[in-house]
Design brief:
With about 210 residues, the chain is mostly helical. It contains six helices and no strands. The protein has helices spanning about 35-70, 80-125, 130-150, 155-180, 185-190, 195-205.
């Protein structure tokens, strides 16, 4: 019984096959239907904006509390003094919020971009796209983050578990979207009993037969 879903060829058809050049890769054949460059650019932009917002909120709130604590012993006693106090406080809070926002935005963009880059690199090394590459990327980024921040072993272990959980969840979501679009996912074909069919079909497409 022929399926009504048109199956798309895989970007990495079979082990040993040459990877398509970037100019020949179509967006619908990629993860999330986005080319790698678009996927990384979008994720870095969104994560940087989110980090900037969170960093500004945290930095400004912390700076406001710190300013009040540092000046609690010399509160003004006149309206002019209070005006100068609040003016200085607003400047201090804004400056600290912007600095913290830029710092956190850059960090978020860097680590998220590193995750998607690692995912793509593992895809190319394995010759296929599925959640396994995403899990490896999640664990790798979590490990690099722990090493960079010099976390103790218990904290690094929790980070690894978080990276594993995120990679598995995000990877399965990407696989579900790929299957819904008619793409071939190796382990899905295996579970459905189509052993080897995805390799043969993709090989024929790659060879133009």
């Amino acid at each position: 019984m022929t399926s009504s879903i048109q199956l798309l060829p895989h970007r990495y058809p079979f082990p040993g096959a040459s990877v398509q050049q970037p100019s020949t890769i179509k967006p619908e054949e990629c993860r999330l239907s986005l080319l790698f460059s678009t996927r990384v650019t979008t994720s870095v932009l969104v994560s940087s904006i989110a980090g900037l917002t969170l960093g500004f909120s945290y930095g400004s709130r912390d700076a406001g509390l710190r300013f009040r604590a540092e000046n609690a012993h010399r509160l003004p006693s006149s309206s002019v003094g209070w005006y100068a106090y609040h003016k200085a406080k607003n400047y201090y809070v804004l400056n600290a919020g912007v600095r913290e926002g830029l710092k956190m935005g850059a960090k978020c963009g860097l680590w998220v971009g590193g995750f998607f880059t690692a995912e793509e690199a593992v895809d190319r090394l394995r010759g296929t796209e599925d959640s396994a590459s995403t899990v490896v990327a999640g664990l790798g980024v979590a490990g690099a983050f722990s090493i960079w921040n010099r976390f103790p072993l218990p904290v690094a272990t929790r980070m690894a578990r978080s990276g594993l959980l995120f990679g598995l969840t995000f990877g399965l979501m990407e696989d579900a979207l790929a299957v819904a679009r008619g793409q071939r996912v190796a382990y899905v074909d295996y579970l459905l009993g189509r052993r080897g069919s995805w390799r043969d079909t993709a090989k024929e497409d790659a060879l133009g037969t």
